[in-house]
Design brief:
about 45% helix; 9 strands; binds phosphoric acid mono(formamide)ester; alpha/beta; binds norvaline; five-stranded parallel sheet
Length: about 325
């Protein structure tokens, strides 16, 4: 896995199939060691900068805990904490941070910012979510699918994604399926299909379909994946524009029945609007007459939350694997 040393991770297609397999193997190894309280530190004295121009729970916690448990230090820069792009150019910031840190995580709404950061940083830059891609999430999703499909090869898995497929998760899923070869059915109104350029690159491989037809897309799925219908960085009036088109793509009991697979499992990258216990969930539910969750009903979320929370936990193990792979020459370390 020498090839990942010092590499940026901006999108899933920065990895090849072999590298993704190695990251998954390393994640499983790290997870096992952590669970057995036998973690070995590979990142002693490394320093990482965590820039979050958007809010986060899982990604921030996963990077910080991965750093702590591996012996590295992290600095957190929340929204408005840095001069980045306001009083100091992205280029200057990239060069200055590279003098002090061994790696830079960036989350923000404008994918162009991370492109510039990675072009001018001399240390690895990791994408912790932009409007276009969410690669670290997708590695955790893959690990979760593998853990819950022990009797299947990756190429035999059918994953259906329901909802807004034009967002960072939809685009990244296309790349992941294109590279790893599982069947991906993206079920959404045509207006919310993934980026056409990304689709064009991978759709030839014949394992990716986009459809508006729920029955066609869901039938025999092993995993049904959904995400919020309005992503970070979109304005509130996006709800009004999107909700009527997306309403019928809610993950609910009826959808599970259509799958006709008693072993079907649900994935959600979280956060989820599955009840009214959030300000947005309550407001949107009341405004648009949703009685039980928005993109997923509470009934289904509760029933399948063991896998969904394992998916969230897997952010830690997979981010740890990405940090180790890009910050160390892991071949020399002979980890496993
Ligand atoms: N899934 C995910 O990226 O969660 P956060 O927004 O909490 O980081
Ligand atoms: N598509 C969502 C993902 C959240 C992890 C968003 O960008 O808000």
């Amino acid at each position: 896995m020498k090839s990942l040393f010092k590499k940026h991770i901006i999108k899933i297609s920065n990895f090849n199939k072999h590298e993704i397999q190695k990251i998954i193997e390393l994640s499983l190894y790290l997870k096992k060691n952590r669970n057995n309280q036998q973690e070995i530190q590979y990142l002693k004295n490394k320093k990482i900068a965590l820039i979050f121009e958007q809010e986060s729970t899982r990604t921030r916690c996963a990077f910080e805990i991965a750093a702590i448990e591996q012996g590295a230090y992290s600095s957190y820069f929340g929204p408005g904490n840095m001069h980045l792009g306001y009083k100091e150019s992205i280029i200057d910031t990239a060069k200055i941070l590279s003098k002090m840190y061994d790696g830079i995580q960036y989350r923000g709404n404008d994918h162009n910012v991370i492109k510039i950061l990675s072009k001018y940083a001399s240390v690895p830059v990791w994408n912790g979510l932009t409007n276009k891609y969410h690669p670290t999430q997708l590695i955790a999703d893959l690990l979760t699918m593998i853990e819950f499909s022990r009797n299947k090869n990756i190429s035999e898995i059918i994953c259906s994604y329901l909802g807004d497929a034009s967002n960072n998760i939809g685009n990244s899923l296309v790349e992941l399926a294109g590279i790893m070869g599982f069947q991906l059915n993206l079920i959404a109104p045509k207006k919310y299909w993934p980026d056409q350029k990304i689709l064009n690159k991978y759709i030839k491989s014949n394992n990716i379909i986009c459809t508006e037809n729920i029955n066609q897309g869901i039938y025999q799925s092993d995993f049904i994946y959904t995400d919020v219908w309005v992503s970070m960085g979109e304005t509130e009036d996006a709800w009004k524009k999107k909700i009527e088109l997306l309403r019928k793509y809610q993950v609910n009991k009826k959808i599970i029945q259509i799958a006709q697979n008693p072993k079907v499992k649900i994935l959600h990258c979280l956060p989820a609007l599955h009840d009214k216990n959030t300000k947005i969930g309550k407001k949107i539910s009341n405004l648009y007459q949703f009685n039980d969750g928005i993109e997923i009903t509470n009934e289904i979320f509760d029933k399948y939350n063991r896998i969904i929370f394992q998916q969230a936990e897997n952010r830690l193990h997979t981010i740890k694997a990405i940090l180790i792979s890009t910050l160390t020459n892991i071949e020399k370390l002979k980890i496993y």
